[in-house]
Amino acid sequence: MNRVLVPHIADQPRPPRDVSPIELSGETMGTTWRLRAFAPAGFDAAGLKASLEALFADYIAQMSLWTPDSLINRFNELPAGASLDLPPLFHAVLTHALTIAQETDGAFDPTIGALVDLWGFGAHAPAADVPSRARLGAAKDAAGWRKLTNQEPRKLLLQPGGLRLDLNGIAKGAAVDDACDLARRAGLASYLIEIGGELRGFGVKPDGEPWWVDVELPPGAAAPRTIAALYNIAIATSGDYRRSATVDGQSISHTLAPSTGRPIANGVASVTVLHASCMLADAYATALQVMGPERGIGFASARGIAALMLVRTADGFSEYVSAGAERMLA
Question: Is 0.90 surpassed by the pTM of this model?
Answer without folding.
Answer: yes
